[in-house]
Specification:
5-stranded mixed sheet, about 70% helix, alpha+beta
C-alpha cells in the first residue's frame, strides 16, 4: 500500500469518524428535543386535566348544593311548616295556660328553625357567582369585613365591565375570602387594600394588609398558600405572595379574556 493510499484512507477514516460524531450529536439533540416536547405535552395535558377536574368539581359542588337546597326547601321546610301549624292549632284548642306556654315555646323553636333553614336553602341555591360581575362579588366580600369594624378596608377596580367565566370568578372569590379571613384572624392588621385591574394582556388582583406578616417559607401551608397557588395555576394564572413585618401582599395575574 502506497503512502498516498494510506493518507487517503486516513482522511476517509477521519471523515467517517467526524460524520459519525456529528450523527451522534444530531441524534442526541433530536432525542432531547423530542423528550422536551414530550414533557411539555405531558405537562400541558396535566394542566388541561387539572382545569377540567376543577371545573367538574365546581360543577358537582354547585349541583350538590342546589339539590340540598331544594330538598331543604321542599321537604324539611314543608314538614316544619306543617308542624308549626299543628302547634298553633293545639295552642288554640288547649285551655290550660301552662301547657299553652310550652306549646308556644315549641312553636317559636320550630319557626326559628324554619327561618334558619330557609336562609340556608337560599344560600345553597343562590347563583350569585354566576350572575354577578366579579367586581360586585369582591366588593361584597370587602364590605363584609368592613361591617366587622375590626380594621379599615378599601377595594377599587377599573374593570367594571369585566366578564369572566363562572370557574374563574369562583376561584378569585375563594382566594380573596381566604386572604381576608387570614388577615382578620392572624395579621393584627389595621388596613386591607384590594385592587382589580385589567389591560390587554392580563387581569391583575392585588390584596395587601399592614399586619405583622409571617415567614412564607415556614407557614405558607397554614394560610392555604399552596391551595391559592394551585387554584391560580389551574385557571391559567400566576401568583406571588410576599410577607414581612410591614404586612402581606398577594398578587394574582391571569390572561385577559
Amino acid at each position: 500500500m502506497g503512502k498516498s493510499q494510506i493518507i487517503l484512507n486516513t482522511i476517509l477514516f477521519f471523515v467517517f469518524f467526524i460524520a459519525f460524531i456529528i450523527a451522534i450529536f444530531s441524534f442526541v439533540r433530536q432525542y432531547n428535543l423530542k423528550k422536551k416536547e414530550h414533557i411539555m405535552m405531558i405537562q400541558t395535558q396535566h394542566e388541561q386535566h387539572q382545569q377540567e377536574l376543577l371545573a367538574t368539581q365546581i360543577e358537582i359542588q354547585n349541583q350538590t348544593m342546589q339539590h340540598i337546597g331544594r330538598e331543604i326547601h321542599d321537604n324539611i321546610g314543608q314538614k316544619l311548616t306543617l308542624a308549626s301549624l299543628y302547634t298553633q292549632q293545639l295552642a288554640y284548642e288547649n285551655k290550660a295556660p301552662h301547657i299553652n306556654e310550652n306549646i308556644e315555646n315549641i312553636s317559636a323553636i320550630i319557626n326559628q328553625s324554619l327561618k334558619e333553614l330557609r336562609a340556608l336553602s337560599k344560600n345553597l341555591t343562590d347563583n350569585t357567582i354566576d350572575t354577578s360581575p366579579i367586581t360586585v362579588l369582591l366588593e361584597e366580600e370587602f364590605q363584609k369585613i368592613a361591617d366587622l369594624k375590626i380594621c379599615k378596608v378599601n377595594f377599587s377596580s377599573d374593570a367594571t365591565h369585566l366578564v369572566l367565566p363562572y370557574q374563574t370568578k369562583s376561584v378569585l372569590l375563594r382566594i380573596v375570602q381566604e386572604f381576608l379571613q387570614n388577615s382578620i384572624k392572624y395579621s393584627k392588621c389595621k388596613n386591607i387594600v384590594g385592587l382589580l385591574t385589567k389591560n390587554e394582556q392580563s387581569i391583575t388582583l392585588s390584596i395587601a394588609d399592614d399586619g405583622i406578616g409571617f415567614d412564607v417559607s415556614k407557614k405558607s401551608d397554614g394560610i392555604g398558600w399552596s391551595n391559592i397557588k394551585k387554584r391560580t395555576e389551574i385557571i391559567g394564572g400566576t401568583s406571588s405572595l410576599k410577607s414581612s413585618a410591614e404586612g402581606t401582599h398577594l398578587l394574582i395575574s391571569i390572561p385577559s379574556i
